[in-house]
């Protein structure tokens, strides 16, 4: 791999997981003839799961994304694109933009070319204030979280009426499973041994079953006892770095959300799952888990909920369900990362981080005084 450092699983700079996009995509852009010739690649995204470049073309600036075909199929991407288009019209009436992927010569928004799956997205108005912020890095200002919570509620309203089955992508989507099963622990244990998560991925931990039962069993049972939630397609990765902001935010004020980016993890889940994910992404400094300092940001969690509640009221039972969900909301994605890093990337160190630190470590943290304080903030 080559190029500048990318975002990884820790604060340490990481080599890009995928080769950066270069001049080889000239032939690919022929599938989008309305763009005309391209002039310059002026930025490469540091995000780890796909190669993304900002490209200046005759028709304006676009973002070109390239995916491994085992990670995203053409049909899977097109489903994601239909969801983005569905919410875009409603959010536009709220003054929030969504970069709906551009259709190519054949009307398709995703193309298989040169052994990769490609998509092209337009630039949209707004300031990318958190472009270089790591995932799981909380915002410093509560006002930012209020705006993010309010915008999330707006997206959930906009998502109503989009009825599609869960995505079939094997890895790295905001999948509700195994939490949606009547017995989530049994579903978790049963997911190991599939093509997406083979037994070999966990072979270095002979006691993985007992450890999962010890750390996750009680938490999964508590959530399973909560009322079932109505299904909803959701964003799946609601972090401030996936939002564009108004000039007020760029200048240091609270600001408002100007655009919603990156629907790459979007999937069929439920509104509370997406809200819990937003809290998990923005209200805990997970990259400092091994430090002696508190990593919970209860004020940010409360601000997210305040913003959300202003548009989508949360009653006491909903908050209790949210508190039961938060310690396990990461489970599906953590399992997905284990499979991805084992099968597609062949990175045993990353598998270990995904299992030890992400799957088990994040859940265990909620038993600490810091974690308990965050759960209490959800019920205030």
UniProtKB/TrEMBL annotation:
Residue intervals of the Aminoglycoside phosphotransferase domain: 52-314
GO molecular function term, any single one: homoserine kinase activity
Keywords tagged on the record: Kinase, Transferase
PANTHER family: AMINOGLYCOSIDE PHOSPHOTRANSFERASE DOMAIN-CONTAINING PROTEIN (PTHR21064:SF6), AMINOGLYCOSIDE PHOSPHOTRANSFERASE DOMAIN-CONTAINING PROTEIN-RELATED (PTHR21064)
UniProt keyword annotation of NAD present: no
Pfam families: APH
This protein's record includes keyword Ribonucleoprotein: no
Family of this protein: Belongs to the pseudomonas-type ThrB family.
Gene3D superfamilies associated with the record: 3.90.1200.10
The organism's taxonomic lineage, starting at the top: Bacteria, Pseudomonadati, Pseudomonadota, Alphaproteobacteria, Acetobacterales
GO biological process, one term: threonine biosynthetic process
InterPro entries to which the protein is assigned, alphabetical: Aminoglycoside_PTrfase, Kinase-like_dom_sf, Pseudomonas-type_ThrB
Protein name: Ser/Thr protein kinase RdoA (MazF antagonist)
């Amino acid at each position: 791999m080559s190029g500048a450092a990318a975002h990884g699983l820790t604060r340490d700079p990481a080599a890009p997981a995928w080769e950066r996009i270069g001049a080889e995509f000239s032939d690919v852009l022929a599938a989008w003839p309305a763009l005309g010739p391209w002039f310059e690649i002026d930025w490469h995204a540091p995000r780890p799961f796909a190669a993304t470049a900002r490209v200046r073309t005759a028709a304006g600036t676009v973002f070109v994304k390239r995916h491994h075909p085992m990670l995203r199929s053409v049909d899977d991407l097109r489903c994601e694109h239909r969801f983005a288009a569905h919410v875009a019209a409603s959010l536009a009436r709220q003054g929030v933009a969504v970069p709906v992927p551009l259709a190519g010569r054949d009307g398709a928004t995703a193309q298989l070319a040169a052994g990769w799956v490609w998509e092209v997205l337009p630039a949209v108005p707004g300031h990318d204030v958190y472009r270089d912020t790591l995932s799981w890095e909380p915002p410093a200002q509560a006002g930012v979280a209020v705006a993010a919570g309010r915008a999330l509620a707006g997206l959930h309203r906009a998502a109503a009426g989009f009825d599609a089955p869960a995505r079939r992508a094997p890895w790295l989507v905001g999948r509700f499973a195994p939490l949606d099963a009547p017995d989530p622990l049994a579903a978790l244990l049963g997911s190991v041994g599939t093509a997406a998560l083979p037994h070999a991925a966990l072979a270095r931990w002979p006691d993985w079953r007992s450890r999962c039962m010890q750390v996750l069993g009680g938490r999964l049972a508590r959530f399973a006892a909560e009322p079932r939630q109505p299904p909803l397609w959701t964003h799946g990765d609601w972090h401030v770095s996936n939002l564009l902001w108004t000039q007020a935010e760029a200048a240091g004020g609270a600001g408002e959300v100007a655009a919603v980016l990156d629907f790459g993890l979007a999937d069929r889940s439920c509104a509370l799952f997406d809200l819990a994910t937003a809290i998990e992404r923005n209200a805990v400094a997970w990259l400092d888990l091994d430090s002696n300092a508190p990593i919970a940001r209860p004020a940010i969690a409360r601000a997210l909920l305040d913003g959300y509640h202003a548009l989508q009221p949360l009653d006491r039972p909903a908050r209790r369900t949210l508190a039961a969900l938060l310690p396990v909301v990461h489970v599906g994605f953590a399992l997905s990362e284990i499979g991805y890093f084992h099968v597609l990337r062949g990175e045993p160190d990353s598998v270990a981080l995904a299992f030890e630190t992400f799957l088990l470590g994040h859940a265990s943290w909620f038993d600490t005084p810091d974690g308990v304080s965050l759960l209490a903030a959800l019920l205030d």
